Amino acid sequence: MAGGRRGPAEPRRLMRAGLGLIVLGHGSLVLGAIVHGSVLRHVAGAARAVTPEYAVANVVSVGSGLLSIAVGIVAILVSHNLSRAALHWTLLSVSLLNLLLSTACSAGLALAIALTIHGRGRHLVMGCNSSALPADARAAIVTNDCPFNTTRIYDTALALWIPSMVLVITEAVLSGRCCFVALILRGIGPCARRYGKEQVGAGGS
Questions:
Q1: How far is Cα of residue 47 from the mean position of the Cα atoms in its chain?
Q2: What is the DSSP letter of 1?
Q3: At what angle are helices 150-185 and 192-204 packed, to 10 degrees?
Q4: What residues contact 63, with CB distance under 8 A and at least 6 apart?
Q5: How far apart are CA 176 and CA 166, in angstroms?
Q6: How distant is the alpha carbon of residue 118 from its chain centre?
Q7: Of 6, 39, 112, 160, which residue is least crowded by CB atoms under 10 Å?
Q8: Mean pLDDT of 69-84
């Protein structure tokens, strides 16, 4: 009975990680859509004036959100089917891929945030054709040549990018945990001998 109590511990952690990834993935998708709709779409306009790092960071964030949802679903399936080797390898592959993608996304968002702060948001208002383009994105433009409100672009972008970065960092951590569990279930790594057979046996009983 004592062994039975200890056995389900790892599946419960895996299921919680899967649920967390599903929630975080949806959060990344929502924030990515808001960034595109409220910042990048208005900034770029027909001239496509947004620099690549901003667009790439947003696209990768959405991709990471979608993959996080997939990893979460697979993790939940594995937590209920610990003896299925095919699910173990699937979880290992998708969680490792999402770990790399989420890490790259967090680096891209950090770069976008740093460039925005360093340039005082000027790159974010390059789509404005006004000759009175301010040096600071938060400064008001004196003419009506700009098709969007430049005074809100800077603060809106940072207010959305910072929580997005927090989400993708958490996604990377949870994906790393799922990858670690998948290695244990396949008997790979120093912890496999200690936990692997116990977890598989508990799931099959």
A1: 28
A2: -
A3: 90
A4: 101, 105
A5: 16
A6: 24
A7: 6
A8: 89
Which tokens in the block code for residue 93?
């592959």
More confident position, 3 or 109 = 109
Rounded CA-CA distance 181/183 in Å is 5
Select, from the ranges 59-68, 76-85, 134-143, 170-179, the one with the highest average predicted confidence (pLDDT): 170-179
* Cβ-based burial of 139 (10 A; exposed 0-12, middle 13-18, buried ≥19): middle
- How far is it, in rounded angstroms, from Cα 73 to Cα 15? 9
C-alpha to C-alpha distance for 194 and 196, rounded to whole angstroms? 6
Instruction: Evaluate whether 109 touches 164 at the Cβ level (below 8 Å).
Output: yes
- Report the distance separating Cα 105 and Cα 25, nearest Å: 13
DSSP H helical ranges for 81-130: 85-118
Asked if residues 163 and 181 have their Cβ atoms less than 8 Å apart, the reply is: no
CA 24 to CA 114: how far, in whole Å? 23
Instruction: Tell me what percent of the residues of the chain surpass a pLDDT of 70.
Output: 62
Question: Of the candidates 72, 79, 77, which has an alpha carbon nearest to the alpha carbon of residue 202?
Answer: 79
Rounded to whole angstroms, the Cα distance separating 203 from 3 reads 12
Residues in the chain, total: 205
Nearest Cα neighbor of 105 from 146, 64, 75 is: 64
Average pLDDT over residues 158-162: 85
Q: What is the pLDDT of residue 8?
A: 53
Task: Please give the mean pLDDT across all residues of the chain.
Answer: 75
